[in-house]
Amino acid sequence: MSIVYLNGRYLPIEEATISVLDRGFIYGDGVYELIPVYRRQPYRMAQHLARLHHSLDGIRLANPHSDPEWATIVTELVARQPFDDQGVYFQVTRGVAKRDHTFPKDVPATVFMMSNPLATPSRETVESGVACVTAVDERWLHCDIKSTSLLGNVLMRQFAADRDAVETVMFRDGFLTEASASNILVVKGGVVLAPPKDNRILPGITYGAIYDLARQGGIPFEMRPVRESEVWTADELWVTSSTKEVLAITTLDGRPVGNAAHAGRPGPVFRKMHALFQASKPGA
Ligand SMILES: Cc1ncc(COP(=O)(O)O)c(C=O)c1O
Question: What's the CA-to-centroid distance between 241 and ligand 1, angstroms?
Fold first, then answer.
């Protein structure tokens, strides 16, 4: 039985209940976060807590905890799970109030956290790469907020699943944005290209890790708008997230990705980055 955190208490998930009037349920009026934990050590917790703060600011909800308080809850929750590699999920909503669009006054936020086993990609998936499909990005223009209002992302993920693909790569106005629950990076001529961290994408913590590792490893990295045409002519495409880590996209809409040397297979820059990422994990 999994132990979760709800509004100051640790309790079995079956006993963790909230009101149907919670604004997270009624409006999707909340934000969330997910921190990967390797061998019981959180990965880049400071960056995840900073992003949580940014998301809360973005919806004008006061952060209910300081970073040390969040860190204490994460540590407690991780210690209560019987597995070493975990994904700690946080959700903060604008609390319980009579249904009305405007913000309620003096209502405490609802804070829910749970930690599930972290299912990282298998060796076969890393070796073979993954299939993705493409679509027009029809989501709102605050994709930098990690909002629980995820309908646009849910529909995009299902679009991929219906086509036996792991992700939907999205384009807005002819430029790459991201995928339904991951960032997309492009490799061209040995340079990693990544869309700027603006309102059109979630600033992925894995994307940030890849940026740091590329710099340390001497791999050129450019953050700039990436044209759809550059995606179609890429030498390599990568998908990154806290659960996927970094994976090569080897087919896009059924077409092999990459140049003749490794078309449809993970490329050499991916192999280097994957090794750097594995080495950067706590306990590696
Ligand atoms: C829309 C979206 N983009 C990107 C990411 C990747 O972010 P991270 O690397 O922090 O997991 C996620 C992760 O959930 C996401 O939902």
Answer: 5
